[in-house]
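Re: your question about GDP-mannose 4,6-dehydratase

S., sorry for the slow reply, the queue was backed up all week. Below is exactly what I fed in.
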Amino acid sequence: MKKALITGITGQDGAYLSELLLKKGYEVHGIKRRTSLFNTARIDHLYQDPHVDNRNFILHYGDLSDSTNIIRIIQQVQPDEIYNLGAMSHVAVSFEVPEYSADVDGVGTLRILEAIRILGLEKKTKVYQASTSELYGKVQEVPQSETTPFYPRSPYAVAKMYAFWITVNYREAYDIFACNGILFNHESPLRGETFVTRKITRATAKIALGLQDKLYLGNLNAKRDWGHAKDYVELMWKILQYDKAEDWVIATGVTTSVRDFVRLSFKEVGIEIIFTGEGVNEKGHVGQCTNPKYQIAEGTEIVSVDPKYFRPTEVDLLIGDASKARNLLDWQPVYNVESLCAEMVQADLELFAKDQILKDAGFEIKNEFE
Ligand code: NDP
Ligand code: GDR
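Result:
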């Protein structure tokens, strides 16, 4: 039985990857941070009683900022494959916590690679590094491929650039099977609530159900190549099964603006959005509402730009060329942006249906911080 160790197991990708590897017969180990409240909601369905023997899903307390902890866990698990998905992964927040982002997202990767070297596991343990399309940053060429130069535009992206190159360096210097997956944005119903797609699909569901009045967003012009996390975790695994350690772009090849994602999302509940104004003054109004279940009067303003969500430096356009992965790893994504968005909206409608019942029964629905 192969053993995999996943950092970031409680995150979106960690949850989908755990499911995939368990289905493939792996013993899956994950590193989970100590938190003041439970934060395992995405993997609770995989829980196994820690008091019984023969478990194949095992969590360890740890943190990418603690090299002693990383060395000890790798020594104990002796993994065949490590998937380094743990990160402070929010680009906008990285401007608020730049040093922490550098430590965890950049040096955290070094800690894993050094642990492999210290423990003499260079020939045994393969490493997948969660690299990112944010490395491309300021547009140099489109579509972006493995040969496009990097120009990172945030503390997050700069930290990930260190992680990218230290992975390449340890591969070349010590012959470790270490690979970068340069993944473009990927989303799902498990996406964190403050990333833009999930923020939009949650707001769509809540507005349709009468639980929220308005959605505030930042830059509506940004364009992203959005895929589905389920499609992308399969590639992480395939990258480590390929006969050579290399770096790979994973993307759909289709780009969509934030504004169009808003339109797509509300269309899923039968609400047409018409945008007026430009940039900081832009507002989205209800055009036609064709769904009799969610009647909202024509002209109602439900989207507004709030400059507080603008970033000090922005990444304007991402669109990936994944021909290498499509050809050599025999990969085809199942989802496109329409089916991705539809799945997310339907999942959020289901999620908030409970709140609607509570609200109708007179219970107070708490606001959330964002
Ligand atoms: P999430 O934000 O959903 O998950 C991040 C995970 O990292 C969580 O499990 C989090 O733990 C953990 N983590 C955060 N800080 C630390 C730390 N100091 N030590 C150990 N673990 C930590 O991210 P995704 O699942 O979306 O992304 C996975 C990886 O892929 C990340 O590295 C991200 O930067 C990268 N990536 C993501 C893309 C995307 O579009 N989703 C695209 C390209 C790259 P906790 O639950 O406790 O917060
Ligand atoms: P990104 O994802 O920065 O691409 O990083 P995010 O969804 O946060 O932003 C995408 C684009 O939308 C614009 N935007 C907003 N973003 C957020 N979060 N909230 C808003 O209200 C809002 N309004 C407009 C942003 O300015 C941006 O242009 C994600 C993360 O998963 C990274 O970890 C990963 O490396 C990259 O994708 C690829």
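The CA atoms of residues 354 and 360 lie 10 Å apart. The first strand starts at residue 3 and ends at 7.

Happy to talk it through on Thursday.
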